[in-house]
Amino acid sequence: MSWEPQPDGLSQIITLLKQSQSKDNMVQRAVQLKLEELNQYPDFNNYLIYVLTKLTSENEPTRSLSGLILKNNIRIHGAQLQPGILEYIKQECLMALSDPSPLIRATAGILITTIANTGELQNWPELLPTLCDMLDSQDYIVCEGAFGALQKICEDAADTLDSSALNRPLNIMIPKFLQFFRHSSPSIRSYAIACINQFIVHRTQALMVHIDTFIENLFHISSDDDREVRKNVCRGLVMLLEVRIDRLTPHMNNIIEYMLVQTQDSDETSLNACEFWLSLAEKSICKEVLTPHLARLVPVLVRGMKYSDIDIMVLKGDVEEDEMIPDREEDIKPRFHKSRTITQKHSLGAGASGSDSAVRSMDDNDDDDDIDDPYVDMNDDSNPSDWNLRKCSAATLDLLANVYKDEFLPILLPILKETLFHEDWLVKESGILALGAIAEGCMTGMVPHLPELIPYLIVCLSDKKALVRSITCWTLSRYAHWVVSQPHDQYLKPLMKELLKRILDANKRVQEAACSAFATLEEEACTELVPYLGFILDTLMFAFRKYQYKNLLILYDAIGTLADSVGHHLNKPEYISILMPPLFEKWNSLKDEDKDLFPLLECLSSVATALHSGFLPYSEVVYRRCISLIQQTLIQDVASTANPTQFEQPDKDFMIVALDLLSGVAEGLDCYIESLVSSSNIMHLLYQCMQDSMPEVRQSSFALLGDLTKACFQHVHPHIADFLPILGHNLNPEYISVCNNATWAIGEISIKLLEDTKPYIPMVLGPLIEIINNTSTPKTLLENTAITIGRLGLVCPVEVAPSLQQFVRQWCSSLRNIRDNEEKDSAFRGMCQMITVNPVGVVPDFIFFCDAAASWMTPQKDLHEMLQKILHGFKMQVGEENWSRFVEQFPPQLSERLAVMYSI
């Protein structure tokens, strides 16, 4: 197709393109409106491609901008473009790949990828063959332009390229790319590796059949003079380590030598190479292959942890006092509310219950909760997602410390000695970071050094450099567990005093680090902090008036964590008078639609739970607002579902946070919440929330239902026939937290409903047995499921006991790891009742029952008698000789424990 522009039209578009480069917002807005208006004319896009590809009289930025506007048009209106116009654009793009300007070639490549991504790859059968043919051109520019486009296509459409719908073009493309690994141009070599790298992680078959050739070629160009090539080689090797370690193992020694050199490069290559160590540290072969090189690697990693000049510039490392400078919106990362999940607060690690587990298989099932990666958000920069060499090196050191444990220290301690006390603050700072990084893996070996190191770090909290003060906060938080276990006067008191000073630091980064570190200390110290509560609250509330927006969010978290950690000790008039006025000043200043309510409501939820009756003066105003937030959100939801064009979808986080705060209020006030519940429509709202399409809403509503069941069952009781089928329907482990809270609520309801639970047993027992027998069920859900099954057995033993054999082994394995508490008590009473009804059901797994019975420290007198009766009854039933043979299978600790506790 040939097309020629009208001179007037062309001149108008050139003027617009030039104006759009203006820094004046008013001009830009006017241009935007004009561009939207021009989109009504079909051949507007012809003008845009013409400017990009033909109008060489214009400067490159203007031509490129024309292409980028066209790219957006194709992305948004591609489906409506007339076929003739689209064909013209395609033809021109391919021609432009041989433009002398790299910027124009790159823009044409972006356009081609955009067209391919809007589903046109299927309708553009000649695209890939044409690009592959262009690779063979003798003209370097044509080859490079084609490769630029192919790399973008490989990046964006990796799956499509391997589909049968396109006749698997990769079968031709991968061997083709491999030919260019030895091309004379470094740019072409780099493109060739980058294209193939896109297919490693997906284990694409077309690549796997050539994997040895690929690796051989990678090795061939690994020492390339060009950094971009080496960077892509490193990237390829890191991905191969993830998916084809078998192919790399024979060459591992050489690869390690190579990566040691590349990690010391001075640019991006070092980060790509460093990711190799991070990946290797997680592999089972790590120790075997890395040990001979460890003494050379560790100093390289510690050097990589030093701030670079660019880091210092970005971080404004020379700005010491910035607390008065308001936060910029782009520096504040989006915050998501984490819905309330009911966990067993008294859960122990395996084997901590006083008896060695007879069988270990069920003990190693960890929670599925995401653990924050400390290196992603290490107070290092305004954008925590900026992954850099420093963070990668620190994360690698942490992992290696976990692999080698104390064997790591002979190599690391001399380096730490040199860096920690260095006169250059940048070196000292990196040493403090390294000390924090190894805390988890090398804790045992570090203990003899901590009496000297912790006081030194406490002194570093007053360092004149803000970046040293902030990293010291983080490192001290990594040793908080040890600090709390020592005499208070020696370490905890001086640490707390200095950390609280840093919470009021004049530097925002230090404030943030100190607040986070203090929250960690609170979690470790719990009620040990009670003697210092007045001092702590005074500091936190002073910070409340001083902090800018971003740090205020972290402060809310520190206040909430304090409430969780000290619990009812906070319920004293003098503490309440310090804590509540600033929180309620905020509460009154925020509108219902303000997202800044989220962190405040989360914080208040912890405070309400901790204060118990001390929260009464604030309860009504909080309760009414939460009800109002839930109601508003439900009304908006109904409106937007019925009429999506007229009403926007509401942000359901408002409802979730309100439900969670009501849970905190119900847990804290207990029966005092009754009058608030009776004068509101909360049961009706709860019924709607429990059926919401969003899992997090259901999760929080089940938590609230359980808490209201405990606090004022008289108001829940009339709705049981509506509520229980919904709970039964949500026993779906695909949504772990929803399932967990539904399970817990069923247990709480059964304890109140007693024998009236009977009609609902068939509805819930089957799914609960399925969950407890599923090997991938996380620990928290296993514990809650076991407690609920036990409670159902307590109130309806005749209905539940016939299924005993289907769950007793897993039940015992799950509950042996929980400390004595009332949930465990009610569950074990239920188990005893079921064994009385169906003793045969427990016989094949009786060793597990013995182990679970031994996990009690001090059971209630009547429960102790029940357990003892079952143990002695079994012994009598099987006879002395069989019992002796049976006991021989026990670990010695279990036999001793049973003898001491139950005289058996």
SSE blueprint:
Elements: H1 7-19, H2 25-38, H3 44-53, H4 60-77, H5 83-96, H6 102-120, H7 127-135, H8 140-156, H9 158-161, H10 170-179, H11 186-197, H12 205-208, H13 211-220, H14 227-243, H15 245-248, H16 252-262, H17 268-280, H18 286-290, H19 294-304, H20 309-314, H21 389-404, H22 409-420, H23 425-437, H24 443-446, H25 450-460, H26 466-478, H27 480-485, H28 492-503, H29 508-525, H30 533-546, H31 549-566, H32 573-589, H33 597-611, H34 616-642, H35 653-669, H36 674-678, H37 682-689, H38 695-711, H39 713-716, H40 720-729, H41 736-753, H42 761-772, H43 779-795, H44 797-800, H45 804-815, H46 822-837, H47 846-853, H48 861-878, H49 880-887, H50 892-902
Helix pairs in contact: 3-4, 3-5, 4-6, 5-6, 6-8, 7-8, 8-11, 10-11, 11-14, 14-17, 17-21, 19-21, 21-23, 22-23, 23-26, 25-26, 26-29, 28-29, 29-31, 30-31, 30-32, 31-33, 32-33, 33-35, 34-35, 34-37, 35-38, 38-41, 41-43, 42-43, 43-45, 43-46, 45-47, 46-48, 48-49
Subcellular location: Cytoplasm; Nucleus
GO biological process, one term: protein import into nucleus
GO cellular component, one term: cytoplasm
